[in-house]
Amino acid sequence: MFVPFAQRFLPCLIVLTLGLLLPASASPVRFSAVETTYHSDTDADVAKTIDGIDASSTGWSVDGAPVEPQAAAFRCESAVHGGRIRLSLCFLSGYPGAHFNEFAISTTTDANPSLSGNWEKLVPRWFYSTGTTLSLAADGHLRSSGNASNTIFVVETPLPDKSITGFRIDVYPWAADGRPEHERISANRGSFVLTEFRAESFETATTNVALGCPVVASHEIWGSFQADFLTDGLLATFAHPRNPALGKAFFFQIDFRQAREFDHLSLRGRGDGQVPERLSRLTLELYENDPATGCAPVWQARHRADGSYPPPGGVDVIRASEGTGHFRGRYLRISSDSPVAYSPQIAEVEAYEPILPKLISMRADSLKLRMGRAPVIPAGTRWLAAGLQIASAHVPTSLPMRWRIMDALPEWRPVSPEGIAEEPCLPPGKYELQAQVGHTDGEWNDQMLRIPLIVQRPAWQEPRYQIAVGAVAAAAILLLVRYFAQRRLAVRVADLERHQVLDEERARIARDMHDVVGARLTQLAVMQEVFSAQHPQDSQASSDLHRLTSTAREAVSALDEVVWAVNPRNDTLQNVADYLCHCASEYLSPLGISCRHQLPEEWPARQMRAQSRHQLMLAFKEALQNVAKHAACTEATVALFVDGSHLVARLEDNGRGLPADFAGIGKDGLANMRTRLESVSGTCSINPRDGGGTVVEMRVPL
Amino acid sequence: MSIRTALIEDDAPFAEALSSFFRLSKAIACDAVYPNAEAALRDLPRLRPDVVLVDINLPGMDGIELVARLKAAAPGVLSLILTMYEETPVIFDALKAGACGYLLKRTPPSEIVSAIEQVHAGGSPMSPQIARQVVSFFHRTAPVSENSLDALTDREREVLDLLSKGFLYKEIADRLLVSMDTVRSHLRKVYEKLHVHSRTEAVVKYLEQKR
Question: pLDDT per residue over A316-371, tens digit each?
Fold first, then answer.
């Protein structure tokens, strides 16, 4: 018989427990029904055990059943899942000794819990009584020594990861003196009154899954220590083999109750600073199945093989990479081949499953992004916010998270308690959002969330956009060029058509004018001759009349010129040449000046526009006038030929040449000729002729 | 003995003025005035004037066609083209069709009279431009001509050549040491040869084109 360690150090245990386990709020578990194997009072009295009032004169009463085991089943209003449970058994009826001598707690996952259902015993981890002394028997039953009028048994234990629908209390006869004839179910001659059964559940405040798991040792443990101390969550309790020199043969074995994946394992040595060197040269092995069956470990590691050991209060964190194999399993065996006696000495073994965050939302400014494999953040986003949540169920919701963006923001930054990670948006590029969850022991989970992120380049920076824009621009330019080319062509065609129509129209008008006006003027000239012949006049009248006729003829001649110039039929070089020669002969011959023509036999099939023809003809006539007025010549030569893209008209005379004051005399005429020819992009030059005389050369582009 | 003349002219006032002038002149007797080619072609073979003055632009049948038809219907009647315009191609077409020369309407009436007298005397007024066309025409057609009579003589070529260079009849006569009448008669022969060629090819073609 030993006094439980836990009881002796109760006050400091609570402090230490709180230090290890994060504080969590309790939520009461309500019961809807009670069933008992037997009760002395009414059903209504039994129902008082779950009425929420601790003290009562009645409840589940058993009177005069000293040695018969009894049981009561409590149905939960709603299932309790995981976490820790604190059960309070109140015996506050005032009757002395009306409390259990020995009892056990069981749980069920049956949909309709009943005494005949399936029950699984809980092994309580922490327990105390306010009036008696509770102790844990090897079979997991709790025994109460002492006698109190009013007492409360408090039992606290982790719950398995199952939906617990009901609790059961089994009451057994027991005698503190060990004498079978004294065995009773209660200290009061076999009668008890359970005035209240109260349950409070606590959210698991730790991610240490080893907490509360059964531990066995291969050999005897020193003194009153227990193997379970390794998973009791209490740093002050520790265990080591009783035999100082078992070496490798000794091991602790923790049963995690189910096969689990691990992020890391933690080992803590004795916290009081005494012989810390007993935690060294360890071998850790994880087994999928009970190692007793001889199966091979799935993972094993040598830890502190160099003989070193953690300092007092230190913790050794062991990760997958320290060993070989798959870092998972249900059973963990820890042994040591250290030469230090009483190795291994361990205060606590903790095991942590991988916990990952998950990305639940993403916002770019006010835009909620679609959650694909790689969220795409639109170009121009200024603020980025990610909503993160812990992916695993049944872990403390308050676990810390941190995040970073590789490679832009390599420093870890905390995720807000609301699960928000936010930052000013990054420049365009590809990144990776990483996030980790922190375990309750302060270690960050190795495995992390990795989400590729793409911050879009502004569209105009995208190469394919640039190519597209380039192509579109090129196409547009091409289309524009084509459009304008076609338009220009169309305009030119229209222009030509208009010109042709205009030319024809001009020719028609000129011809009509010529036909009508010219005919009348011609008639006038003839009539003057007739008149003169019929009516003889004095010389003055005759001369005046003759001048009138001459004027009429000049008018016809001028009309003739216009008609010639605008008549489209005259746009051949042959016609131009013929006409100019004709003009020269007609003008110069009456003045007694011989006129010579120098023309090519054949003319190229080139055309000369009406405007050019007209200006050339007028300039040519101007030249003829100059010859007639100033040259005092006997012979003039008209030479016409094509020089490149120009028609050249040259008028030579054998006269007295350019006068000294040529600039004065010929100025107006030359200026007129130049102006006329320049209006059709032509030129005019006047030079002395070899052997005397003058050469006037006119060039008009074709 | 005045030269018997007919006038084919659709411009009635001008025809009236010109015929009035002819009546005053003793050299010319204006026998008839026709306002269109059709009427003239009906009468003229019977009337048989010495010279006809033909306007090119006539309503209906034009002056060139009339000249060509008169050549066949009334051989020996000399045709002179009377035109408003100095349009060499048109005039040359008329000459090929059988005209012996051309006159511009604005020519003073007294000069028209002298031109008629010259034509009647066997002369053929020809401008340098027309001469060039004639040279060019024979240059193109002569090689295919088998009848040597139809080809131009050297003298004729010489005259045409000088004429085309702007020499006046008198200057040509002086150069060639012949009289002006000889020059004229050379040119008349040139006209006749032009007509022969024209009848066989050009005019027919021209008339076909006109239809």
Answer: 999 999 999 999 999 999 999 999 999 999 999 999 999 999 888 888 888 888 87
* Residue among B14, B85, B164 whose CB faces A560 most closely: B85
Considering only CB atoms, which chain A residues are within 8 Å of B86? Answer: 560, 564, 579, 582
Q: Is A656 a member of any domain?
A: yes
User: SS3 for B15?
Assistant: helix
Task: Indicate whether A207 belongs to any domain.
Answer: no
In this structure, the answer to whether residues A392 and A416 fall within a common structural domain is: yes
Question: Is A97 a residue whose pLDDT tops 90?
Answer: no
Same domain, A383 and A478: no
Is B165 in the A-facing interface, judged by CB distances under 8 Å? yes
| Separation between Cα atoms, residue A598 and residue A575, nearest integer Å | 14
- The shortest C-alpha distance from A546 to chain B (Å) reads 11
Nearest residue of chain A to residue B161 (CA atoms): A597
State the residue range of the domain holding A325.
215-352
CA angle at residue A679 from A676 to A681, to 5 degrees?
A: 110
Identify which of A530, A569, A601 has the shortest CB distance to residue B21.
Answer: A530
Same-domain pairing of A49 and A183: yes
**Residues A497, A553 within the same domain:** yes
- My answer on whether A44 and A190 are in the same domain is yes
B positions 66-95 inside 8 Å of A (CB): 84-89
Say whether B85 and A569 touch across the interface (CB within 8 A): no
Task: List B residues 117-136 in contact with A (Cβ-Cβ < 8 A).
Answer: 127-129, 132, 136
What sections of chain B are H helices per DSSP? 12-24, 37-47, 63-73, 88-97, 109-120, 128-141, 154-164, 169-176, 180-197, 203-210
My answer on whether A316 and A401 are in the same domain is no
**Are B166 and A597 a contacting pair at CB < 8 A?**
yes
pLDDT at B94: 84
More confident residue, A3 or A676: A676
Specify the residue for token string 């008349």. B188
Question: In the structure encoding, which two tokens stand for residue A84, read together?
Answer: 């820790």
A524 lies in a domain?
yes
pLDDT recorded at residue B197: 61
- ipTM of the modeled complex: 0.71
- Tell me the pLDDT band of A193, cut-offs 50, 70 and 90: very high
Classify residue A54: in a domain, yes or no.
yes
